[in-house]
């Protein structure tokens, strides 16, 4: 499993499928479904830990999630998202933290930013760490930039295109485009050799990513315009638990077949 595969897919205009996962069985399901890459996103802060943003998660938690995902999906390309403050303080701390995600089982790391992270990405790539970029709406900066799509003005378009090109030149193997207007995402995808992975960035990216809990409808708190829910997970899980609950209450579960029997007198029944 190598980053060259994704360049080839782009050349052949084969779309790249990415999904997030954070635990063993989710990763196992994603691998069984044959996705191209799994992102262990810092969105774990929201969907695994119940926080209201991605500021409130660190390396310790991300390492735990990456290790679990690697065990569930040993043959799928795994990207570890660098959490807030794991790469901003200094380049040496950033490289150390990127290395820790690789040691935990990631095949590559992702970090948010444009021109500001170019020197850092160059260093990481120099040291053999595959890096995915992430531009457009960058959630770790929402306190400064707000929650909004990007590429709506000529100025924003130029910033995005310049950032994308600089990230490619710095050695990034792919770039996430988050909530970038469709024409701008199309233009970036056409002008870069490396694949773009879109979330809320329209039809013309080289691949797409969605968060596990969002696309399975487990997250009943999140309804952005870009989301398509492929399952009504919250309701289905709730109904199953309600069925379990009522069967316990009315004595239908457990049945005799779910119970263990004592050894009968004079029998050679094994435990
Ligand atoms: N569960 C989950 N899914 C995600 O996609 C996700 C996370 N968490 N956490 C990290 C970031 C944050 N993301 C977000 C957060 C909010 C909006 C949002 O409120 N979008 C609205 C308003 C946009 C606007 O006003 O322009 C939308 O309708 O798209 C979108 C993406 C995407 N990422
Ligand atoms: C939404 C994707 C791109 C992400 O960064 C995450 O899940 O953390
Ligand atoms: Mg993220």
Automatic annotation (TrEMBL):
EC number(s) given by UniProt: 2.1.2.11
Which protein is depicted? 3-methyl-2-oxobutanoate hydroxymethyltransferase
Q: Which organism is it from?
A: Marinitoga piezophila (strain DSM 14283 / JCM 11233 / KA3)
Give an example GO biological process. pantothenate biosynthetic process
**Where would you find the membrane-spanning parts of this chain?**
none
Question: Which gene carries the instructions for this protein?
Answer: panB
Entry-linked InterPro entries: Pantoate_hydroxy_MeTrfase (IPR003700), Pyrv/PenolPyrv_kinase-like_dom (IPR015813), Pyrv_kinase-like_dom_sf (IPR040442)
Please give one Gene Ontology molecular function term for this protein.
3-methyl-2-oxobutanoate hydroxymethyltransferase activity
What is the annotated signal peptide range for this record?
none
């Amino acid at each position: 499993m190598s980053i060259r595969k994704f360049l080839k897919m782009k050349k052949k205009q084969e779309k790249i499928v990415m999904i997030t996962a954070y635990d063993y069985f989710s990763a196992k399901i994603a691998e069984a479904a044959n996705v191209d890459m799994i992102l262990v996103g810092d969105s774990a802060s929201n969907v695994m830990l119940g926080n209201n943003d991605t500021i409130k998660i660190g390396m310790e938690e991300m390492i735990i999630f990456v290790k679990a995902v690697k065990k569930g999906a040993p043959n799928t390309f795994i990207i570890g998202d660098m959490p807030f403050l794991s790469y901003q303080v200094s380049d040496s701390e950033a490289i150390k933290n990127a290395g820790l995600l690789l040691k935990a089982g990631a095949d590559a790391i992702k970090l948010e930013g444009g021109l500001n992270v170019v020197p850092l990405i160059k260093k990481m790539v120099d040291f053999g760490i595959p890096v995915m970029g992430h531009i457009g709406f960058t959630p770790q900066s929402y306190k400064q930039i707000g929650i909004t799509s990007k590429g709506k003005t000529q100025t924003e378009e130029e910033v995005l295109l310049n950032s994308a090109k600089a990230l490619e030149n710095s050695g990034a193997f792919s770039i996430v485009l988050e909530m970038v207007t469709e024409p701008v995402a199309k233009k970036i995808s056409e002008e870069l050799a490396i694949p773009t992975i879109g979330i809320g960035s329209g039809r013309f990216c080289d691949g797409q990513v969605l968060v596990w809990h969002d696309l399975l409808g487990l997250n009943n708190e999140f309804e952005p315009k870009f989301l398509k829910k492929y399952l009504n997970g919250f309701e289905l899980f709730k109904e199953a638990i309600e069925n379990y609950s009522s069967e316990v209450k009315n004595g239908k579960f457990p049945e005799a077949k779910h119970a263990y029997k004592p050894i009968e007198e004079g029998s050679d029944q094994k435990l």
